[in-house]
Amino acid sequence: LQPPRSELLQRPGGVAVLRWNRFDPSLTASLLQALRNVTTSRGLVLDLRGNGGGNFDMAQTLLDALLPTATEVWVTHRRDGQSEQRLRSSGRALYTGPLLVLLDSASASGSEMLAAALQHTGRARVLGETSCGCLLAVRRHVPLPDGARLAISEMALQLPDGRRVEGVGVRPDVPVPRTLAALRDGRDEVLEAAERLLSAPR
Prior knowledge:
4-stranded antiparallel sheet, alpha/beta
């Protein structure tokens, strides 16, 4: 397992790209600081391709940092029959400029939670491929005799309009399939499409 890491890149055309490899709480402070440091007028791209997710609360914290108005973002349902919980963003965003999200089939869990809420609220458009469809909240780990731990999904999530991501995935607003020709040329077609969208006259 690779160590948690994040980076904020400034592209030559003026677009900023923020990427991180998983939703690990140790990255929260650096990601929030990165959002404070975004100064581009072109816009910000959250590159969640290959990000398999992780910590539930971290995804909620990032939604707070990206949604400028307080709004309902998710509804949770527990296996134990307890009443549903409605999650709202705080309305105290750190970054309020133009925003796009990149996904692929390996984007899962927290990546889907973040992307789907930003898409649902109209805060960001999603580009790339349909995500994994692997969004259930794990709140408990059971230790096993050999030192391993069993993760138990105890909570299902749905968007305020009733849609679920689990088993379906987050579908992109702008599908951008990768091609072998671009891979051979060392080009990133998905990021190129995002830069074109953010550079287009508004």
